[in-house]
Design goal:
CATH architecture of the largest domain: 3-Layer(aba) Sandwich
Radius of gyration: 25 Å
Largest sheet: 7 strands, mixed
CATH superfamily of the largest domain: Aldehyde Dehydrogenase, Chain A, domain 1
CATH class of the largest domain: Alpha Beta
Structural class: alpha/beta
Number of strands: 23
Number of domains: 2
Bound molecules: nicotinamide-adenine-dinucleotide
Number of helices: 16
Distance between the termini: 73 Å
Strand content: 15-25%
Length: about 500
């Protein structure tokens, strides 16, 4: 019988016999499991469980909440092979890449272990005669997270560890395309000692998401996914009075300066453009070369470097990257490659329809290099989300920066150069949220925060790190007076000063 990935509500696996859909192994094209799609009633059941668990969890000392995370971290490490296997079977990413994703997720758990320190608040003595004032950070209540397919372990862990140690209870709606690793990870929390109802998982689609967005018991929503959906989530959550951070899509450019260490830039670009089949929101998908010499050198060296890349199935660690997520997505990526060629770009390395022995029905796209791309081409404007690197040639650094600043997305960017002055000017003036200097994937570590600018993020606060603590708490400021005995205040109608 086909395994059905169901929901985790109040510490128990719940199957609501509502609709379901198939989960595929993208390397074979086979439907291997089904995922339950929660009904409105099931989501409401999860919200009720989280609501019921909130008062006790809110009053649990932060150090005790943190201890659950310490145990959870150990369990994640002990179960890492299984988690990476589940990611590989449904997402397709190679085991070493899955291990990297899991490690970055674990780092968010480590940050959450600092809950007592993170929640200490601010205190001022003697703001007036015998008056002290302090700000404390209280949990919001039941909060929700909605996550994409491309990081089924890491992105959920950008959200729930911090939300939970801050004293909230949580409902996670993972991607319906690769739900198994996410559900398995959530189940480890119970083993780590988390009380039932504090963490709940509802699998599903729009019906589940819309229920979370409309139920007044949900106080905040964190979303990561594509920009059109991020925009919808942000607008709907706001209209319903919820706090929301919605992270969207990207088009990340690397500027390659004439003075760059070209061999280093090429090595970095190979990993950042094609790793995880380009299905990373921080993937470098455009190289902007400054000057013809840099353009020619980059294209020649990339072409050479790409010859040794290997696309294939997740369990073979010799492979560099795996398939893309679905058949439809494979066709979309292939379509963008075709359109670039039709619109006048030069297809230097065409990765369409690679031969992957034993996996003829997999959704593979090989590494692709396209030169002489211009900013009006469809393949430049859209987020392709595949193993495709496009090269745009410009004459000056200013022109390169203008191109980046004009793009609708502003997630990540990078400059390859040996010139500190140019690098400093670039990082200071570029309209992008996360900047690398000779670092191709500048994904902030867990004790900083992650977020793009422009249409890559809707909301004020970035994900995880210090912004995450602010997002999952509300500030309360208390002003307290204990008059000395015998001292009585007179009546005053002036504003207190
Ligand atoms: P997606 O937007 O299709 O789905 C994300 C989530 O939204 C899923 O849980 C899905 O079930 C839900 N969803 C989809 N359609 C919906 C609808 N009509 N109404 C309500 N909910 C809906 O994204 P994806 O394809 O899973 O992920 C890839 C995208 O995510 C890319 O655009 C990528 O750049 C982006 N992403 C961004 C970041 C970031 O930090 N900015 C990180 C990872 C991925």
């Amino acid at each position: 019988m086909t395994q059905v990935i169901s929901h985790l509500i109040n510490g128990e696996i719940v199957n609501d016999n509502n609709r379901s859909q198939e989960v595929f192994n993208p390397a074979t094209g086979e439907a291997t499991k089904k995922v339950a799609l929660a009904s409105k009633q099931t989501v409401e059941q999860a919200i009720s469980a989280a609501q019921a668990a909130f008062p006790a969890w809110r009053n649990t000392p932060p150090i005790k909440r943190a201890r659950v995370m310490f145990r959870f971290k150990e369990l994640l490490e002990q179960n890492s092979d299984k988690i990476c296997q589940l990611i590989g079977e449904e997402h397709g990413k190679i085991s070493h890449d899955a291990a990297g994703e899991l490690q970055r997720g674990i780092e968010n758990v480590e940050y959450a272990c600092g809950a007592p320190e993170l929640l200490k608040g601010e205190h001022s003595k003697n703001v007036g005669p015998n008056i002290d004032s302090w700000s404390e950070f209280q949990p919001l209540g039941v909060v929700a997270g909605i996550t994409p397919f491309n990081f089924p372990a890491m992105v959920p862990m950008w959200m729930f560890p911090l939300a939970i140690v801050c004293g909230n209870t949580f409902i996670l709606k993972p991607s319906e395309r690769d739900p198994s690793s996410t559900l398995f990870i959530a189940q480890l929390l119970k083993e780590a000692g988390l009380p039932d109802g504090v963490m709940n998982v509802v699998n599903g689609d729009k019906e589940a998401v819309d229920t979370l967005l409309s139920d007044e018991r949900i106080k905040a929503v964190s979303f990561v996914g594509s920009t059109p959906i991020a925009e919808y989530i942000y607008a709907t959550a706001n209209a319903n009075g919820k706090r929301c951070q919605a992270l969207g899509g990207a088009k990340n450019h690397a500027i390659v300066m004439p003075d760059a260490d070209m061999d280093n830039a090429v090595n970095q670009l190979l990993g950042a453009a094609f790793g995880s089949s380009g299905e990373r929101c921080m993937a470098l998908s455009v190289a902007v070369t400054v000057g013809d010499e840099a353009g020619d050198a980059l294209v020649a060296k990339m072409t050479e470097g790409m010859k040794s890349l290997s696309v294939g199935e997740h369990s073979n660690a010799n492979n560099d990257f795996g398939p893309v997520i679905t058949k439809a997505h494979q066709e979309k990526v292939n379509g963008y490659i075709a359109s670039a060629a039709e619109q006048g770009a030069t297809l230097v390395v065409d990765g369409r329809n690679p031969t992957v022995e034993g996996f003829e029905n997999g959704y593979f796209v090989g590494a692709t290099l396209i030169d002489n791309v211009t900013s009006t081409m469809d393949s430049y404007q859209a987020e392709i989300f595949g193993p495709v690197l496009q090269v745009i040639r410009v004459k000056t650094m200013q022109e390169a920066m203008q191109l980046i600043n004009d793009h609708e997305y502003g997630n990540g960017t990078c400059i390859f150069t040996r010139d500190g002055e140019a690098a400093r000017y670039f990082s200071d003036n570029i309209q992008v949220g996360m900047v690398g200097i000779n670092v191709p994937l500048p994904v902030p570590v867990s004790y900083h925060s992650f977020g793009g600018w422009k249409r890559s993020l809707f909301g004020d606060l970035h994900a995880y790190g210090p912004d995450g603590v602010r997002f999952y708490t509300k500030r309360k400021t208390i002003t307290q007076r204990w008059p000395s005995s015998g001292v009585r205040e007179g009546v005053s109608f002036a504003f207190p000063s």
